[in-house]
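Dear colleague,

Following up on yesterday's call, I've attached the two folding results inline so they're easy to grep. Please treat them as preliminary; we haven't cross-checked anything against experimental data yet. The first protein's sequence and structure tokens come first.
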Amino acid sequence: MIDIRRADTRYRGGDRQAGIDTRHAFSFSGHYDPDNTGFGLLTAVNDERLEPGAGFGEHRHRDIEIVTWVVEGALEHRDSTGAVGTLRPGQVQSTGSGAGILHTERNAHTGPTRFLQMWLHPDGYGGPPRHDRADVTLPQDGGLVPVASGRGHAGAVALRQADAVLHAARLGEGDTAALPRAPFVYVHVVRGALRLGEEPLGEGDAARITGCRDLEVTGAEGGGEVLVWEMHAEPSYG
């Protein structure tokens, strides 16, 4: 089953007076829809836009895996593990909150910063928090590259979730990438234009695929960049 969600149907959040504009894929904060609380292991896919100097003050997370992918600009991250750094396009970051972590995020760029932040359930609870960051090189002619993984993929940041892998691809016009065969696959178009089979997908569009088999994404006119979650389970609360 393929469920297409267009960019303009996302919940609009943030605080635009404070320079924060957010588009939520699932129920989040003041937006609650009992029929849209997550997909597979994902509980949040937030498309964040920060004006220069804007950001999120110190706040706490626990028992959630957070993956951040910067689309443009620069995002400064500080957390209670002592990790401090600036994330830019071409890098990926994972933060395992464990029993609890405090962190702040701020636009460290002179222009707008846009990033995707994705939350998913871990496969265990408690324990020390963790921070990981890696540089990512995407081939220009397509092909999925693991960028965050609970399965030990080389070059990918680590996740405390053995049933999840995040892939990225940059597809030129006509280039194709085979989607993983998995019970749950989430496709998000970061920028540009793609096709899922014959279905056109534009920037910010997403597809939730249950029982994914023998599907491909293809670069449409001008090509595009895509993030693909491969998930082999749903959350376990035992």
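Below is the second protein, in the same order (sequence, then structure):
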Amino acid sequence: MRFFKTLSGRFLVLTAIFVMLAEILIFVPSVARFREDFLMSRLERAQIASLALLANEDITDELQEELLLNAGVFNVVLRRDAARQLVLSSPIPSPIYATYDLRNPAPFELIGDALAALADPTPRVIRVIGEPSQMAGLLIEVTLESEPLRSAMIDYGLRILLLSAVISVFTASLLFLAVRGLLVKPIRRVVGHMQSYAAAPEDARQIIAPSAGVTELREAEEALQTLQTQLTHALKQRERLAQLGGAVAKVSHDLRNILTSAQLFTDRIEMSDDPKVKRMAPKLVNSITRAVHLCESTLAYGRAEEPAPKLEDIDLDNLVNDVIESERLAVGESGISFSADVPSRLTVRADGEQLHRVLSNLVRNARQAIIDTGKPGEIGIAAYDEDGACLITVTDTGPGLPPKAREHLFQPFHGGATKGGTGLGLSIAQELVRGHGGDLALTRTDETGTTFEIRLPHAPKSA
């Protein structure tokens, strides 16, 4: 049974079936043609027997009976001029069942008569009318039994079917060998390359070398070669990045300890009475603080393994108010105002803790951007439903993002939305939103402010 599940096995079976179907379509007209030839031969033999009688009218009854027996008919009627003449006759065992005229038969009429003869096993007496050969009269008419005709048709049909089966098996075998050589073996070779490559994808020697002669297979091999080459390079780069990440984590850990010690010393430097020291100490403290923050952020990002969100119905209005109240406490009297435009009954299927982190990060970045300008500003959070999703926008009236920050906005360690940032906050925020099946995007930024948009799909409660 396993053989018939293979491509070559199924091709063999289908080819045999299709050849048999083609032979069956040929079988019906072939049997009809055989029936016509059989009846025409009876007419010719009957005509020969009647000519013998016409040549010698003194033929005995025994000889007439022998002539009719050899012709396979009961009687012969020959019309030579205008008269219809019974030339040879013998007793008919039963009434005539049907009359068939073979002078100008239609193809479908012959096919229908042949199928009817095969389907009727009852012995009948039939009349057949035809044209005499060699212009020996106007018409010839004979009566004969249908059973010998039906037996001959069945024998002929069985031989045709047997020959068709032999031809179909032979043809299918040839096609099987051809398909096996042209398609199956190359496909198995490709599968073998894929399996060996899957066992050791880092080994460049396992990459397939296109060699198929069939155009479609060669294109598939070339596409597979390109894919394997890119994947091998990506795996090597990933391995190098993993090693580099480990080294960076170790360096960041040690550097953080060193900078922490330096930070303690700078606290004592600030107590110096030297005016130059007092003037330079804050800058030194700020530089060391940023370096410590960078090391801590790098270590935190390297350890970050965000869990899958635990989806539940979240009251978005309460969540946004919590974020805004926390930020109000942080800004104090800095001149930054907050606003919320969230429908009171708007709920969203999300992880409340992770969504709070995302909104807090966006609001914190907006707050820092406004503070850096030294001017008052406003931060607003709005939410509404649109096209089967919940849209949350965070808008500020800050100075907008610089071009460099826009190019690598969501890539870690490429600069963030705020001056001196690492970009880790936005990268983690986007990762959390995508974990919900949504997206975080920058929709507007110019000198009048910036807008970020969070799109969260409405997931079913069973999710």
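For the second protein, one point worth flagging: The first strand starts at residue 75 and ends at 79.

Best wishes,
A.L.
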